[in-house]
Amino acid sequence: MSPLTTIVQDTDTGPVLHIAGELDYSTAAELRETVTGLALRPGQRLVLDLAHLGFCDSSGITAFIVARNHATAAQAEIALVAVPGPVLRILRVTGLDQVFSLEPGTDAQNGRTASG
Amino acid sequence: MCRTGPSPDPPEGGETTSTDAAFTALLEDSADELYESAPCGYLSTLMDGTIAKINTTLLTWLGRSREEVVGRMRFTDLLTVGGKIYHDTHFAPLLSMQGSVSGIALDIKKAEGGRLPVLLSSVTKNDSTGRPQLIRTTVFDASDRRAYERELLRERQVAEAARTQAEEDRERLQEALAVLQQSLLPAALPPVPGMEAASHYHTASPDRLGGDFYDLFPLDGKRWAFFLGDVCGKGPQAAAVTSLTRYTLRAAALHDPDPVAALTTLNTVLHERYAAGDPRYCTAIFGVLEQAGDTVKVELASGGHPPALVMRQDGSAEYLPTPGGLLVGILPSAPFTATTTELAAGDTLLLYTDGLTEARIGEERELFGDVALRDFAADLTHTAPHEVIEAMTGLLNSFGDGLDDDTALLALGVPTDRPDTGSDSPT
Q1: In this structure, are residues B68 and B117 in contact, taking their beta carbons and an 8 Å threshold?
Q2: Contact state of A94 with B233 under an 8 Å Cβ cutoff
Q3: Residues of chain B whose C-beta is under 8 A from some C-beta in A?
Q4: Where is the STAS domain (chain A) (predicted)?
Q5: A60, B259, B333 from B242: Cα distances, Å
Q6: Residue range B185-413 in CATH 1.10.10.10
Q7: Of B30, B29, B24, the residue nearest B6 (C-alpha)
Q8: Is residue A56 over pLDDT 70?
Q9: Which of B151, B80, B139, B52 is nearest to B104 (CA)?
Q10: Is A102 exposed, middle or buried (0-12, 13-18, 19+ CB in 10 A)?
Q11: Greater confidence, B417 or A70?
């Protein structure tokens, strides 16, 4: 099982957080800390890239809600990109698919580069 | 090998010779000197115990002169009362039997009072005919060692006391947690006329309060309300939210039993209470039961909770979908999805928390999932609520360590082929 790794990438529209590994009770606090430490300006968009998220339980969902609250407080938007199937299922059951803007993942769109 | 000191084959004779000379000078000087000033006490006694010879080291420890001791005192005169008894009952018999004893711990008396803990070793010296002639004894100062042993003993006692304390604390904590957990659930489900109800709560860990909850209670003469849900997180903070949730839903239901209205009230309360900082929310299904002739009408609404499962008497099992209902408490106003169904004789409605469907099964640790749950329910031949709960409890147990979350189950059904008086339920 892989631990959680997060890489922050600054883009013109706002920070993109690439989240890889496992998001559970033991690692969610780390993500919450990372995400609430991100500087957001009004009108920007915080993107959580979940393409390499291997596992996510309810603690992870809470971390997404913390991210959303952080973005809302800064008058910024939030989007979840490349949401894996199992996570999408949880988002649908909990109704959160209406709260988060969900987008398919394309590396080009996110401007991901080797230098990350 | 790694021998140091004089080399067996001297490459440079002169140096070796001078080293040997230095040793010899030391050794010539040492026989008496070693005896008198050795780092231990030496004592020779006749077979009756009379002290015949004693070294300076031991005399210094005793604080006595040679004249006082030699020929005048016996070995046992040096010992404390307890030491004397031990000497007579153990030391002396062992020595006469074996010819030697070693490492015996005793106290000897000092002339000025006080005692010195020592370790004694003795051997008997025999004459040419094999008769014991005298006893040679070495005496080691054991005060440091005794202090060390006392320190070890003291530390062990401290550690044991700490462990006992920790065990007691843990027991008290578990007791408090169990009481608190019970306060979050009804002690027993009330009998509902014309219906049968059964429930089960699986606790994942006795150390951590779970956040699952359920309840069943009367609204008025004709209607009953029920709810089941899951608060995010675990532990005391989650339990506080559970408690708030349970009492809010109960109070809201008495004010306005419409399921969407009850969940909306709960949403307002949770969002106001936890809007700042740590988000606290729950998923919940709230519903109302009303008897209508031979059937029971169910109205329910869901906020982000997995759909309820309806098992019909004909053996089918279908979910009661409530899509679009949002987690309760994360937004100032939230959509909740309502639906209705009717339960006829032999039908049972099952509410569950996601511990059941999120359990991991098999070597690949795959999700048990909602399809497998529906199939399992459809395979049940007995669908009375207590039978459903029994089967589901068996299912939960079969998950073993694949089930690491608390799980609540609540089954509500209409008894089959029985007078609709609820005779099956305890009254």
Answers
A1: no
A2: no
A3: 232-233, 279, 281, 283, 303-306, 323-327, 330-331, 334-335, 354, 358, 367
A4: 16-101
A5: 20, 18, 20
A6: no
A7: B24
A8: yes
A9: B139
A10: middle
A11: A70
Nearest CA among B425, B422, B348 for reference residue B387? B348
Q: Which residues contact A103 (CB under 8 A, 6 or more apart)?
A: A79, A80, A81, A82
Candidates B263, B320, B255; CA nearest to B286 is: B263
Angle, helix B13-28 to helix B30-37, in steps of 10 degrees:
50
pLDDT in tens, B258-282: 999 999 999 999 999 887 777 889 9
If you write DSSP's letter for every residue of A17-82 in order, what string do you get? EEEEEEESTTTHHHHHHHHHTS---TT-EEEEEEEEEEEE-HHHHHHHHHHHHHHHHTT-EEEEES
Token reading at B68: 């006082």
B54: exposed, middle or buried (Cβ count in 10 Å: 0-12, 13-18, 19+):
buried
How close, in Å, is residue A32 to chain B by CA atoms? Answer: 10
Cβ pair B326:A99 closer than 8 A: yes
Question: How far apart (Å, rounded) are the C-alpha atoms in residues B353 and B201?
Answer: 10
Read out DSSP for B86-142? HIIIIIHHHHHHHSEEEEEEEEEE-TTS-EEEEEEEEEEEE-TTS-EEEEEEEEEE-
A 10 A CB-CB count for B257 gives 19
**Residues in chain A within 8 Å Cβ distance of B263:** none
Domains of chain A by range and CATH? Answer: 5-107 (3.30.750.24)
Across chain A, mean pLDDT equals 87
**Distance separating alpha carbons of residues B262 and B284, to the nearest angstrom:** 11
Asked if B284 contacts B266 with a C-beta cutoff of 8 angstroms, the reply is yes
Nearest CA in chain A to B284: A94
- What element of type H or E holds B58? helix B56-62
Residues of chain B where predicted confidence (pLDDT) is lower than 70: 1-17, 24-29, 417-427
Nearest CA distance, B319 vs chain A (angstrom): 13
Determine the pLDDT at residue B14: 52
CATH class of B38-141: alpha beta
Q: Do B335 and A98 touch (CB under 8 A)?
A: yes
Q: Per-domain residue ranges for chain B?
A: 38-141, 185-413
Tokens 């032999």 sit on residue: B346
Question: B332, B322, B315, B282: which is closest to B300 by C-alpha?
Answer: B322
Nearest to B330 among A59, A65, A86 (CB): A65
Q: Tell me the average pLDDT across A8-13.
A: 92
Helix (H), strand (E) at residue B165:
helix B143-183
* Virtual torsion, Cα B21, B23, B29, B31, nearest 10 deg: -140
B361, containing H or E segment: strand B360-361
Q: Give this prediction's pTM.
A: 0.69
**Residue B235: DSSP 8-state:** H
- pLDDT the model gives residue B358: 86
CB atoms < 10 A from the CB of B370, how many? 18
Please indicate whether, in this complex, the C-beta atoms of A65 and B305 are within 8 angstroms of each other. no
Q: How far apart are CA B242 and CA B138, in angstroms?
A: 74
